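Hi F.,

I've been meaning to write this up properly since the lab meeting, where we talked about keeping a consistent format for the predictions we share between groups. The idea is simple: the sequence comes first, exactly as it goes in, then the structure tokens exactly as they come out, then a line or two of notes. No screenshots and no reformatting. I'm using this chain as the first example so we have something concrete to point to.
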Amino acid sequence: MSHSRSTDQTTVMIKPARIASMDQLRGYAIFGMIVVNYLGHFDFMPAILSHHKDAASYADSIAPLFVFVVGMGFRLSLKRRIERSGLAKARWEALKRYLTLFLVGIVFYGPNMRIDWWDALVDIALAGIIALPFIDKSVTTRAVAAFAFLGLFTFFLHYTGPGVQFTYDGTAYSGYGEWLSKKSMNGGPLGPISHAFILLMGTIAYDLLMTGDSKKIITWSAVCAVGLCALSGVAWKLTPADFAPYADHGQWWSYSHRWAAAPSQLFHTGLAFLAFLIFYVTCDLYKFNFPTLSIVGENPLVIYLLQYSLLAINGSYLGEALEKTKLADATTWSYLLAMAGFSVFYWFNFAAAKRLHDQGYIIKL
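Output, unedited:
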């Protein structure tokens, strides 16, 4: 929120102070997104850089982290709007923002609502709308709402089984879980219910940061990180072992981000708290900023759309070049060429972010 004061008929606008750890954490999420989207394209790169249906990977940690950071920013922006305009208007402005993001997402991703829509922009938009009634509430209320949303999604995933058959595209499915396993991704149309858990956890991290108490921030971030990862193990143990739709994916399928199941959401939110803790200590306590991250994270929507579009337009060129030169296997030259391509790709995105930064543009919906 901008504050103004008058001195000798001159209005001086005072910009709110930036929070280094939040800026850097957001930038890291964007950096990680570019890493996995580009390098995960190559089969010879380590498997942790790609998404999988049967287990968690580094790639799976990035989208939940971004939703977590969105939650932090959502709490910050809503509090400022409430101070400026009151609760009703603040909620209305937030609702319009997320509805616009939803429309941008469905236009950007394409017409296939079964699969195409359920990616970052649409999931964040709908999760934000779902969580909106709780963003201004107490930590306890938000925590209860978060786990309630996760429990609701778990019910739809696991327990709308043989007794809840429905037909889609002429095929009969025994419940939502079976349909999701065969026809969609990222939790599908009900996935935002699950992602609302992560977003609300991000709002709690923001409140923790705002206490300004370093001991409390470090202690509770660590407790949340360890506790949520431990809870993910409990959720995994409670996952029906004979859940047929995912039997082919092995015992660790519920940790894959693709299904948005409780073990995955709990585990990756725990990792998000750990990342938050690392950046808080590094950036806010020790005053060290990782190069490029703050600038890359300053306009996340623009950079997301830019890198996504560039990959859609040019993503196959280097792969085709490697195939033609017989360097598509894991060789030193193939690694070097892929890393060189990534360097060019990342610095192109950074240059766009730097241009916006230098001109003072912060583009938000």
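Notes:
The radius of gyration is 21 Å.
Residues 1-14 have pLDDT under 50 and may be disordered.

If this format works for you, I'll send the rest the same way.

G.
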